[in-house]
């Protein structure tokens, strides 16, 4: 064996790869496989190169383990030892499971990302070659600027495109308890439902973090959750040992704080609705008897608990759906920060009220069309809209009347044509004129602009383009330093950026002279 | 546009007009011309307010001597503010068209809570606290005390207003509540007192019913309003209840205990004053001998709005000798109090009339009728004399004295019911003495008598003829307007049966029936699957809703509904409900959709509009009858039968149907809006119920949709919603339900318009 100096952690025999029997070695830093009877590895991969491993499902006839590499390539090992195949595979799997994360470093991922970007973007690749490979700019600097930008735009795109998925209002209803036949209930929980529960009830999540796994197993936790009064909202609180009784209290508090916060829309504030000045003791309706807690029956208070819980549940589901958006808005616009929790800002209140009143008193159909009418943008040629104006060749626009007139004129001329035989051209001059006017002739060669990319060979064009883009990139670096507000930027500006620009100029100069030389 | 309403130039601040608005203005103009009262029903969302304002403002400009003031009464604070905003729009249009600012002064008036700008006082949460605190800073004797003791706290805004504000009238313009506050802040004047002072010379006053109907407030605020004013009660479908509320009194044991404390305080204060400042009490005595002549003179010369608590007769007399001195009066109060306490000690329900009560009180404690009548007036005088700072503390004794005056003044229209315990909890003693007004006309009578035109208007006033009867007045115009529609944007459906043919009804016998509850649940579930955005469901009472929600929860119906929409539920707590409401709207806004479960007669059903996507469907579960077992209600029904020949059933149905109409009307706030109105009770199909719905709803109930099953309802709703979802442009309406000036003036259209108003 070639490199036995390495520590071998596991050897599995009778492993087939590409229908060839062989032995699988798991070593400290790599995984390797060699065909039977040969002392070299035909397959050898560093753990760092492996993205993940996959195993065949339990029921399958073939017991396999697949490795997926960062390159996208995958290798499948078939464990062929009939009696111990599953055990072998599992041993390898377990070991890999422990080893792989150690090698999975962040740097790896980043590299991968960079690699991907270079592959996907030929311009960037060229730029990379021009600037980094030719050492105009250091690789870090190139990426520092680039990756940041890319990440940012990526994120923005992500936010725009991918909408936050809300929570189904009925997620708790989806957990249908099923009887398992022996006086028990089975709840089916999916990761989605758990996430929904956590997002809707942060208190439960907190409990989960506190208790799982040191106090309770996950299963126990959820069992208790479903047994608790907290889940069955109508049951009255029975025992204090219920870990969720605290959650209920927290929810209560949350609901209260929501209520105290009040409503933003003054038209909805039922408290301020009445301009009632009837004192206590006046009026037909005596003070509501149902508000006194003492004489309410158990059933009634459980009913009202259900109602409260529904309101709370709906509010939480709604909040969970919009939470993300809100925080973003908070950063973005100043106005939205005011409607978050600073209710006391009285200065903000009247405009909302005014706007709402305005809205409520408007009859849009009675009003004439006084608002500017928006015209839908109707593009016949969208590419023309996207690419901006194309230089019009010198032809002028003529109205249809002009055309008709000129046609008529020519018609008239033709019909009245009388050859003046005394002043005819010589036949050679005529034929050369015809040649010049026929396609391919001197006069039919079109305008000058078309010429430039035909006149210059593509390789020169390409090189020039690269130089141009590289210079542009450098200038981008240059301008991104402004305003110079950190010493680092200043240093960058005065120090090596200048050098870089110089280097780029030199490079261009060199190219120019080389071209000139070749031309002459 | 400029309209010609039977020779009157009316500026209307829009380019288009609904035909019914024109018709409405015609009727209104006739009412004003006749200097009489009117009852006008016009569907919600057809621009009732702006039509009213346009016409009356035009009338005021044309005949400034005949109509000097418009008093516009609405129900809630947001509605008041909306009216002022519409008025602002109108005035801006006037300014634009005529090129000059007319010197109209219009303002909104609300309680101190909504107008106070004093940093400490306005921070208080409850209206009562604000009033009390304000009073303790601004009462006249407090201020006079400050001359001797300058360290006493004061309200600089009030002082400033008192010193300067009265000389310069409020400049012409439109003042909403916030504008008043701004103005007050700028000038350093108290906006509340400024507004109260300014309503006397304002052209238009917008405030709540209570300022005119509640004698206690009306006496303070609206007493001196000019006789030739036009009074408008908007959203007046509940006006009878407001009247009754303002005249009814409940006395519990707690009230009496607090009253006892008050009387003790009074006694001590009198004792102290007697030692220090006996002259003051003598002065009061002298005043009382002279009687209430001043008030009498003022009323005879027609300067004051009469106060129903202070009937004419007592104004001509002096305060009887038995309660003229302060000590005697306090002794009198004590005796009265003891008597009330003994009455509250009963073991069984007692119901008696006012004369019976008076007879009994005379026999037991020898209190005559006459001093009782002066009780309220005498107490006010005493409180003034004793310079009591915090009136709020004395609310209990004020309540008792008001009761004394009322019970001795009106031998008819009131009833006294003493209940030793609540019906539901017969073991817990909680005696209450209800002194209940049964005749709404008592409170509103002075308004009809004093002002030349009173207009009662709302979206739901059907049947129209019942209001003049129960309010006891003769209207010159009574009209109900239909809604001209280019597309039928409302779809009333009566669901009578479940898919299993179970009769749906909230009637008492089947109220607990699980089959009915399940079918109601199915209806809501099915609707939640097909209706976009918001659905509002109303139940007949809060307890009923609680029970239904609980059993829906047990049956898993709510969970299934949650798959379609979020659920929000009204609770008895107003703050909690406000929160739920806002979240409900938020859920409708962001497209998730929501259901609001609410209660007819509740705050939501009365004050909140569900425009457009906030309410695409309203489901009315059951007929919202009032709780008929209440003794007060029974007494009132009896009274209505005896006095006005209104049968009990007729009144109950009328009351239920007006609330049902209010509920379903919440969803439709305009012609571009649309909404389903699902009446989920078989009883709605009966002619006597259906006939009491407003005409604009009634005429869209087809015979085919009287007894639908849930499936049929879903089918019809789907069809309706699909139709409504088609784009609806202004051009579609134009000429049918929306007119330009040109179209309006065509012969044909004018003929059509005459058919819109439906006289009764």
Automatic annotation (TrEMBL), chain A:
All copies of domain BSD, residue ranges: 99-147, 181-233
GO CC aspect terms: transcription factor TFIIH core complex
Cleaved signal peptide residues: none
Pfam families linked: BSD (PF03909), PH_TFIIH (PF08567)
PROSITE patterns documented for this protein: BSD
Compartments reported by the entry: Nucleus
Keywords attached to this entry: DNA damage, DNA repair, Nucleus, Repeat, Transcription, Transcription regulation
Coiled coil: none
Described function: Component of the general transcription and DNA repair factor IIH (TFIIH) core complex, which is involved in general and transcription-coupled nucleotide excision repair (NER) of damaged DNA and, when complexed to CAK, in RNA transcription by RNA polymerase II. In NER, TFIIH acts by opening DNA around the lesion to allow the excision of the damaged oligonucleotide and its replacement by a new DNA fragment. In transcription, TFIIH has an essential role in transcription initiation.
Family, per entry: Belongs to the TFB1 family.
Quaternary structure and partners: Component of the 7-subunit TFIIH core complex composed of XPB/ERCC3, XPD/ERCC2, GTF2H1, GTF2H2, GTF2H3, GTF2H4 and GTF2H5, which is active in NER. The core complex associates with the 3-subunit CDK-activating kinase (CAK) module composed of CCNH/cyclin H, CDK7 and MNAT1 to form the 10-subunit holoenzyme (holo-TFIIH) active in transcription. Interacts with PUF60.
Name this protein carries in UniProt: General transcription factor IIH subunit 1
The organism's taxonomic lineage, starting at the top: Eukaryota, Metazoa, Chordata, Craniata, Vertebrata
TrEMBL record, chain B:
Enzyme class, UniProt record, top EC level: isomerase
CDD domains cross-referenced by the UniProt entry: DEAHc_XPD (cd17969), SF2_C_XPD (cd18788)
PROSITE patterns recorded: DEAH_ATP_HELICASE, HELICASE_ATP_BIND_2
Compartments, as annotated in UniProt: Nucleus
EC nos: 5.6.2.3
A single Gene Ontology CC term: nucleus
Domain Helicase ATP-binding, residue spans: 7-285
Catalysis performed (reactions): ATP + H2O = ADP + phosphate + H(+)
SUPFAM superfamilies with a match to the protein in the record: P-loop containing nucleoside triphosphate hydrolases (SSF52540)
Entry keywords, A to Z: 4Fe-4S, ATP-binding, Coiled coil, DNA damage, DNA repair, DNA-binding, Helicase, Hydrolase, Iron, Iron-sulfur, Isomerase, Metal-binding, Nucleotide-binding, Nucleus
Biological processes annotated in GO: endodermal digestive tract morphogenesis; hair cell differentiation; nucleotide-excision repair; positive regulation of mitotic recombination; transcription by RNA polymerase II
MF term (GO), any: 5'-3' DNA helicase activity
Coiled coil: 249-298
Cofactor entry: [4Fe-4S] cluster
Family: Belongs to the helicase family. RAD3/XPD subfamily.
Protein name: General transcription and DNA repair factor IIH helicase subunit XPD
Organism: Cynoglossus semilaevis
């Amino acid at each position: 064996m070639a490199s036995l100096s390495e520590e071998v952690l596991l050897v599995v025999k009778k492993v087939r790869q590409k229908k060839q029997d062989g032995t699988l070695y798991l070593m400290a830093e790599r995984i390797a496989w060699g065909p039977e009877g040969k002392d070299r590895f035909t397959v050898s991969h560093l753990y760092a190169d492996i993205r993940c491993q996959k195993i065949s499902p339990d029921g399958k006839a073939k017991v396999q383990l697949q490795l997926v590499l960062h390159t996208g390539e995958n290798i499948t090992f078939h464990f062929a030892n009939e009696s111990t195949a599953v055990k072998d595979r599992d041993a390898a799997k377990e070991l890999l499971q422990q080893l792989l994360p150690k090698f999975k470093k962040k740097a790896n991922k980043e590299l991968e990302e960079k690699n991907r970007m270079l592959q996907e973007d030929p311009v960037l690749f060229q730029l990379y070659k021009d600037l980094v490979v030719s050492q105009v700019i250091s690789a870090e600097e190139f990426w520092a600027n680039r990756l940041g930008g890319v990440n940012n735009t990526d994120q923005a795109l992500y936010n725009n495109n991918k909408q936050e998925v809300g929570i189904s209002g009925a997620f708790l209803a989806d957990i249908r308890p099923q009887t398992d036949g022996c006086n028990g209930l089975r709840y089916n929980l999916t990761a989605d439902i758990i996430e929904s529960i956590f997002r809707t009830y942060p208190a439960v999540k907190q409990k989960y973090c506190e208790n799982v796994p040191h106090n309770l197993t996950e299963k126990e936790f959820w069992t208790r959750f479903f047994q608790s009064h907290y889940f069955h909202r109508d049951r009255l609180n029975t025992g204090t040992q219920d870990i969720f009784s605290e959650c209920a209290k927290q929810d209560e508090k949350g609901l209260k704080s929501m209520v105290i916060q009040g409503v933003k829309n003054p038209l909805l504030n039922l408290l301020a609705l009445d301009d009632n000045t009837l004192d206590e003791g006046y009026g037909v309706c005596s003070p509501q008897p149902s508000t006194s807690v003492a004489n309410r029956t158990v059933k009634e208070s459980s009913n009202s608990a259900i109602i409260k819980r529904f309101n709370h549940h709906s509010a939480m589901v709604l909040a969970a759906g919009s939470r993300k958006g809100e925080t973003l808005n908070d950063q973005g616009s100043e106005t939205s920060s005011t409607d978050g929790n600073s209710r006391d800002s009285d200065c903000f209140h009247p405009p909302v009220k005014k706007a709402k009143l305005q809205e409520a008193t408007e009859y849009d159909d009675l009003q004439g069309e006084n608002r500017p009418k928006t015209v839908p943008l109707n593009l016949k040629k969208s590419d023309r809209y996207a690419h901006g104006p194309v230089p019009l060749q010198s032809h002028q626009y003529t109205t249809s009347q002009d055309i008709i007139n000129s046609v008529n004129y020519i018609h008239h001329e033709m019909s009245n044509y009388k050859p003046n035989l005394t002043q005819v051209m010589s036949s050679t001059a005529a034929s050369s004129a015809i040649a010049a006017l026929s396609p391919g002739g001197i006069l039919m060669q079109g305008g000058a602009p078309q010429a430039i990319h035909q006149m210059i060979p593509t390789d020169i064009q390409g090189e020039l383009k690269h130089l141009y883009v590289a210079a542009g990139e450098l200038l981008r670096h240059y301008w991104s330093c402004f305003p110079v507000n950190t010493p680092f930027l200043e240093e960058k500006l005065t120090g090596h950026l200048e050098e870089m620009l110089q280097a780029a100029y030199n490079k261009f100069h060199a190219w120019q002279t080389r071209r000139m030389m070749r031309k002459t | 546009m400029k309209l010609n309403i039977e020779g009157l130039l009316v500026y209307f601040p829009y380019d288009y007009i609904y035909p019914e608005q024109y018709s409405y203005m015609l009727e209104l103009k006739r009412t004003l011309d006749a200097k009489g009262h009117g009852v006008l029903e016009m569907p919600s969302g057809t621009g009732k307010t702006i039509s009213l304002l346009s016409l009356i403002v035009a009338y005021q400009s044309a005949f400034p001597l005949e109509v000097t003031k418009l008093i516009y009464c609405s129900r809630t604070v947001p509605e008041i503010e909306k009216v002022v905003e519409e008025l602002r729009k109108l005035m801006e249009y006037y300014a634009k068209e005529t090129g000059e600012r007319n010197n109209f002064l219009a303002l909104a008036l609300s309680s101190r809570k909504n107008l106070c700008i004093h940093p400490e006082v306005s921070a208080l949460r409850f209206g009562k606290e604000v009033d009390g605190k304000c009073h303790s800073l601004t009462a006249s004797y407090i201020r006079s005390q400050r001359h001797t003791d300058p360290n006493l706290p004061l309200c600089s805004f009030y002082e400033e207003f008192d010193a300067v504000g009265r000389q310069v009238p409020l400049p012409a313009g439109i003042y909403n509540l916030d504008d008043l506050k701004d103005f007050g802040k700028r000038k350093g004047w108290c906006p509340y007192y400024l507004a109260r002072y300014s309503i006397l010379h304002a052209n238009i006053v917008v405030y709540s019913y209570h300022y005119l109907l509640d004698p206690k407030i009306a006496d303070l605020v609206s007493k001196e309003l000019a006789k030739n004013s036009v009074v408008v009660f908007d959203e007046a479908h509940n006006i009878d209840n407001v009247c009754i509320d303002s005249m009814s009194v409940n006395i519990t044991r707690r009230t009496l205990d607090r009253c006892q404390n008050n009387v003790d305080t009074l006694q001590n204060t009198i004792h102290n004053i007697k030692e220090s400042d006996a002259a003051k009490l003598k002065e009061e005595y002298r005043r009382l001998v002279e009687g209430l002549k001043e008030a009498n003179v003022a009323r005879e010369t027609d300067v004051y709005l009469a106060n129903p608590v202070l009937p004419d007769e007592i104004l001509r007399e002096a305060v009887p000798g038995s309660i003229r001195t302060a000590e005697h009066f306090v002794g009198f109060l004590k005796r009265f109090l003891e008597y009330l306490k003994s009455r509250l000690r009963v073991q069984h329900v007692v119901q008696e009339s006012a004369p019976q009560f008076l007879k009994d009180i005379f026999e037991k404690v020898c209190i005559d009728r006459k001093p009782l009548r002066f009780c309220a007036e005498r107490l006010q005088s005493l409180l003034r004399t004793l310079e009591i700072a915090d009136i709020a503390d004395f609310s209990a004794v004020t309540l008792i004295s008001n009761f004394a005056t009322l019970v001795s003044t009106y031998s008819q229209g009131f009833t006294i019911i003493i209940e030793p315990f609540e019906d539901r909890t017969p073991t817990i003693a909680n005696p209450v003495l209800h002194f209940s007004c049964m005749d709404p006309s008592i409170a509103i009578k002075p308004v009809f008598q004093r002002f030349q035109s009173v207009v009662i208007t709302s979206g739901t006033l059907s049947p129209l003829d019942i209001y003049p009867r129960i309010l006891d007045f003769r209207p010159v115009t009574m009209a109900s307007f239909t809604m001209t529609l280019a597309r039928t944007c409302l779809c009333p459906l009566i669901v009578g049966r479940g898919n299993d043919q179970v009769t749906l009804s909230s009637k008492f016998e089947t109220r607990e029936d699980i089959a009915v509850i399940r079918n109601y649940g199915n209806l809501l579930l099915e609707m939640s699957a097909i209706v976009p955005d918001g659905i509002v469901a109303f139940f007949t009472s809060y307890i009923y809703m609680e029970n239904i929600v609980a059993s829906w929860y047990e049956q898993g119906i709510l969970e299934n509904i949650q798959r379609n929409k979020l659920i929000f539920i009204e609770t008895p707590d107003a703050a909690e409900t406000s929160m739920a409401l806002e979240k409900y709207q938020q859920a409708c806004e962001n497209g998730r959709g929501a259901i609001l479960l609410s209660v007819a007669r509740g705050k939501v059903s009365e004050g909140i509009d569900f425009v457009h996507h906030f309410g695409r469907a309203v489901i009315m579960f059951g007929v919202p009858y009032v709780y008929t077992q209440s003794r007060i209600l029974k007494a009132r029904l009896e009274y209505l039968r005896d006095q006005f020949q209104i049968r009990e059933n007729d009144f109950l149905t009328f009351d239920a149907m007006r609330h049902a109409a209010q509920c379903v009307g919440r969803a439709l706030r305009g012609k571009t809006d649309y909404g389903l109105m699902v009446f989920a009770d078989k009883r709605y199909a009966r002619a006597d119920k259906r006939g009491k719905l407003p005409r604009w709803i009634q005429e869209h109930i087809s015979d085919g949709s009287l007894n639908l099953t849930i499936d049929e309802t879903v089918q019809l709703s789907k069809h309706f919603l699909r139709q409504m979802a088609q784009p609806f442009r202004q051009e579609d309406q134009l000429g049918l339900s929306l007119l330009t000036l040109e179209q309006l003036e065509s012969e044909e259209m004018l003929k059509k318009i005459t058919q819109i108003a439906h006289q009764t």
